[in-house]
UniProtKB/TrEMBL annotation:
Transmembrane domains' residue ranges: none
Lineage summary: Bacteria, Pseudomonadati, Myxococcota, Polyangia, Polyangiales
Residues of the Sulfatase-modifying factor enzyme-like domain: 67-315
Protein known as: SUMF1/EgtB/PvdO family nonheme iron enzyme
GO molecular function: formylglycine-generating oxidase activity
SUPFAM superfamilies: C-type lectin-like
Spans annotated as Disordered: 102-125
Length: 317
């Protein structure tokens, strides 16, 4: 199913959300011993994420690499090196720092590249797909009048996942954050916990609302997008990543479609069938349990901006 086939969401008011997450740098949470790895753009992001609202929204966790079968299919073996992956989907509060510096922080040629994948960085030919200035960027974040999470100023949505972002904007944010979009193989490896080949990030248990945010009845005026990490730790992957299933479908580096074989830190960077678009994984708050499985794949045109599309970033260990 492509982005144009997905449901449109009806009008509903977003209400104030609660709690958030834990430490990734001294600037984020100065009273706690800092993580040995500090994200570069976290100095003004409050530590309000996670189940208790006291974790850094910029925290990440190491994924130890190995070999596994993509989409749990022995036809598609892959080897992935160690990498770091954001614990949470990028939040409104974290994205606000990027908006404040836009457009001066647009990516330059080859920024946001995967170090083991030639040609994976920013292509200047994509420049025209980015908003021209800050006003246009902010306007683009209002793709849905009721389920957009962006607000013009800081408020109760800071701990919600940013949505309504195109693949190009997600790429640009990660490049600005001295990171990159994860590959399809990396995301799948983290969600399936490598060669455990999990059906869901938490294991084999049937999805429930305690494990993931999905199946929101958008005809119900009380339907809300939850804060990031609201199902943590029960719904986390083995390496501690929250919302790999549910919340937002997450943009990935690859074109949707084929699985390159052999695969040693591979990505589909050449299958440019515009009908397939770019990959997004993990299901979302508005759709059924089908999308929550680690084997479920979707493609969206990279210009797509939907209330159920978000992202998280990856970087080197």
């Amino acid at each position: 199913m492509h982005g144009r086939d997905r449901m449109r969401l009806p009008v509903v008011e977003l209400s104030a959300a609660t709690a958030l997450f834990s430490v990734a740098s001294t600037a984020c949470f100065p009273d706690v011993e800092p993580n040995v790895f500090s994200l570069p753009r976290c100095d003004r992001v409050e530590p309000r994420c996670g189940p208790d609202g006291d974790e850094s929204c910029c925290a990440d966790a190491v994924v130890l690499g190995g070999t596994f079968n993509r989409v749990n299919d022995p036809q598609f073996p892959a080897t992935v090196a160690d990498f770091r992956l954001d614990r949470f989907e990028v939040t409104v509060g974290r994205f606000r720092q990027f908006v404040a510096g836009y457009p001066q922080n647009k990516p330059q040629k080859d920024h946001g590249s995967h170090p083991r994948l030639a040609g994976s960085g920013w292509d200047p030919g994509w420049d025209d797909h980015l908003p021209r200035d800050r006003a246009e960027l902010e306007a683009s974040l209002g793709c849905d009048p009721n389920f957009r999470t962006w607000t013009d100023g800081p408020g109760p949505n800071e701990e919600l996942p940013i949505n309504c972002v195109s693949w190009y904007v997600a790429f640009a944010f990660c490049a600005w954050d001295e990171a990159r979009l994860p590959t399809k193989a990396e995301w799948n490896y983290a969600a399936a916990h490598g060669n455990e080949q999990r059906t869901y990030p938490w294991g084999e248990a049937t999805p429930t609302p305690d494990l993931a945010a999905y199946g929101c009845d958008t005809t119900n005026m009380g339907c809300l997008i939850p804060r990031v990490g609201s199902r943590s730790p029960a719904g986390d992957g083995e390496s501690g990543h929250a919302d790999l299933a549910g919340s937002m479908s997450e943009w990935l580096l690859d074109y949707h479609g084929t699985h390159p074989t052999p695969c040693n830190d591979c990505a589909n960077l050449s299958d440019k069938d515009e009908d397939n678009g770019r990959e997004a994984r993990g299901g979302d708050f508005a759709h059924s349990t089908e999308g929550l499985a680690t084997t479920f794949e979707l493609g969206f045109t990279p210009e797509s901006r939907e209330a159920f599309l978000g992202f998280r970033c990856a970087r080197e260990k």
